[in-house]
C-alpha cells in the first residue's frame, strides 16, 4: 500500500456532541455494543477500488485538509472504520465535516472530542479509560460504532439515527446539515434519506 500511497499523492497533487442516552437500557446496550466492536480493520480488498476511491475523496477533502499525505492516511482510516461498522464512508465524511470540519483536536462545549465529537465518558463505560479520542483511528472507531448502533436501533432511518448520534432526538436540524454536507461534498452512491 506504500507505493499506492505515493501514486495517490502524485495523482492528488495533479487533480454538536454525542449525547449520553437518557434511557438506562439504551445506555447499557450502546456501552456493550462499543465494548464488543471497537477494533481496527483494513477495509480495501481491491487495489483498484482503493485507488479510485482515495483519489476521488482526496480531491474533495482538499478544502479541509491541505497536506496530501495526511489526507490519504485520514481517508484510509475513515474508510476502514466505516466499513468495519457497515457504514457508507461518504456518510462518515459528512458527519465529520459537520461535527469538526476535520479538526482532530476539536472539543465541543459539552466536552465531546475529536473529528467525530465523541463524549469521553464512553471510554470509562467500556473499560478503556486510556483511549485517546484525539487519535483519529480511535475516534473513528468509537464514532462509527455509535452511529452504527443508532442506525440499527432506528432500522436504517438516517435522519432519526443522526439525531440520536447528535443528541437532538425529535429535530432534523443536525441531520439536515449532514445531508447537505453529504449531497454537496461526499455523495457517490444514493443513500435513503426518506423517513
TrEMBL record:
Occurrences of domain Transglycosylase SLT (ranges): 78-170
InterPro entries, sorted: Lysozyme-like_dom_sf, Transglycosylase_SLT_dom_1
Keyword Signal in annotation: yes
Pfam families: SLT
Residues making up the signal peptide according to the UniProt record: 1-19
Keywords annotated in UniProt: Signal
Protein family per UniProt: Belongs to the transglycosylase Slt family.
Name of the protein in its database record: Transglycosylase SLT domain-containing protein
Organism: Pseudohalioglobus sediminis
